[in-house]
Amino acid sequence: ELAYLKDARLIDKAMQYINHASQREKFYIRCTKAIVSKDINQAIAELEMLLDRYPDEKEAMYKLGRYKYSLGLLEESEKYLLQAIEVDPLYKVAYNNLAYTYQAEGNFEKALWAINQYIALAPDEANPYDTRGDIFMKSGMLDDAIASYDTALQKKPDFFSSRRHLNDLYIMKGEFEKTRPLIEEML
User: Fold this and answer.
1) DSSP calls for 74-86
2) pTM of the entire structure?
3) Model confidence band, residue 66 (pLDDT cutoffs 50, 70, 90)
4) Which of 137, 124, 122, 62 is nearest to 98 (CA)?
5) What's the pLDDT tens digit per position in 33-62?
6) CA–CA separation, 32 vs 25, rounded Å?
7) Pairwise CA distance, residues 78 & 143, whole Å
8) Which value, in Å, is the radius of gyration of the alpha carbons in the chain?
9) Could you give the CA distance from residue 151 to residue 31 in angstroms, rounded to a whole number?
10) How many CB atoms lie within 10 A of CB 10?
11) How far apart are CA 118 and CA 111, in angstroms?
12) Separation of alpha carbons 116 and 126, rounded Å
């Protein structure tokens, strides 16, 4: 995990000690090594093998959903994310990624359903409102997107993604007077 969060080279340290890890951890270590090496197909293979051995491993399902999404394999992404949610109906990040998957599939109603599930699980967090703003924006519902980004900023005033998108939307709408405070705050 530190290889994801801090320094990709740390995965080499994990590989050095892989024989001391559990079977489950070995799959994740090899998956991370593959991602760091930019071999997404090997990462997917590791996660699929992990699921063969541990069929209720929600994190593997979630990661497979994300990786399949990045390859444009939206139906497979949806399948894995729904499996993760079936294992853990409170798995917030799975709903978040499922919303983006549905949106990419062109299914606005399902995207809105998924992100509203996330909002119901984490009403005090900024990220689900930011994602909802993204879904509204990509669907051409600019005023709804603005309202959702505003809500995200009420939850977390320094949430950069919402601030940036809000600025972009005000520019698109020609409401330039509203961009100056956003830009100053971002700076």
Assistant:
1) HHHHHHHHHHHHH
2) 0.89
3) very high
4) 62
5) 999 889 999 999 999 999 999 999 999 999
6) 10
7) 28
8) 19
9) 36
10) 16
11) 11
12) 13
For residues 30 and 34, give the distance between their C-alpha atoms in angstroms, rounded to a whole number. Answer: 6
**Residue 187 scores a pLDDT above 80:** no
At 178, the amino acid letter reads K
Q: 63-71 long-range contacts, Cβ below 8 Å, gap at least 24? A: 63/31, 65/94, 65/97, 65/98, 65/101, 66/97, 67/40, 67/43, 68/44, 69/97, 69/100, 69/101, 69/104, 70/40, 71/40
Residue found under tokens 């967090």: 125
User: Is residue 90 within 8 Å of residue 118, measured between CB atoms?
Assistant: no
Residue 139 near residue 120 (C-beta atoms within 8 A): no
Which pLDDT score, from 0 to 100, does residue 185 have? 77
> Side chain identity at 122, as an amino acid letter?
A
- Average pLDDT estimate for 14-18: 85
Tokens of 38: 């930019």
Of all residues in the chain, the percent with pLDDT exceeding 70 is: 99
Cα separation of 162 and 181, whole Å? 14
